[in-house]
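sry for the spam today, last one i promise. C-alpha cells for design, 132 residues
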C-alpha cells in the first residue's frame, strides 16, 4: 500500500470514528439506554480503535524516506489486525476488580504498545538510513 492511500483511508476512518464518538452511542441508538444497539456500536468502536494510532503514525512517516515507511508498514499491517482480533475476543465487561481485562483496556494497551514499538522502529530505521 502506498503512503498516500494509507494516509487517506486511515484519515477518513479516523474522522468518522472521532465524529461518531462525539455523537455518542446513546444518540446513535435513538436514545435507548442499555440496548443491544449500544453494545454493538460500542464494540465496533473498540474494534476499529487501532485505526486512529495507525493514522497518526502514517502521518508521521508520510514525509520520511520510503524505506522507513515500508519497514514500519510491514510491522503495522500485522499488528493492527492482531490487535483488532484481540479486542474482538476480549469480554465487553468483567467483574474482576483487580485485573479488569475488557475491550477498553485491551484497546488502550494495544494502542500504547503499537505506539512504542512504532516509535522504536521508525527511529531505528531513520538512523540506519542516515548512516547510508
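last one done:
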Amino acid at each position: 500500500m502506498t503512503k498516500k492511500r494509507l494516509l487517506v483511508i486511515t484519515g477518513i476512518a479516523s474522522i468518522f470514528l472521532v465524529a461518531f464518538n462525539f455523537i455518542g452511542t446513546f444518540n446513535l441508538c435513538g436514545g435507548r439506554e442499555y440496548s443491544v444497539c449500544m453494545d454493538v456500536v460500542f464494540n465496533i468502536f473498540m474494534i476499529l480503535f487501532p485505526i486512529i494510532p495507525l493514522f497518526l503514525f502514517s502521518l508521521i512517516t508520510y514525509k520520511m524516506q520510503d524505506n522507513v515507511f515500508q519497514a514500519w508498514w510491514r510491522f503495522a499491517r500485522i499488528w493492527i489486525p492482531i490487535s483488532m482480533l484481540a479486542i474482538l475476543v476480549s469480554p465487553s465487561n468483567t467483574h474482576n476488580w483487580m485485573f479488569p481485562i475488557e475491550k477498553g483496556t485491551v484497546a488502550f494497551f494495544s494502542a500504547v504498545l503499537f505506539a512504542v514499538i512504532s516509535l522504536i522502529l521508525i527511529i531505528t530505521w531513520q538512523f540506519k538510513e542516515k548512516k547510508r
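The chain has one domain: 3-131. ok im logging off now
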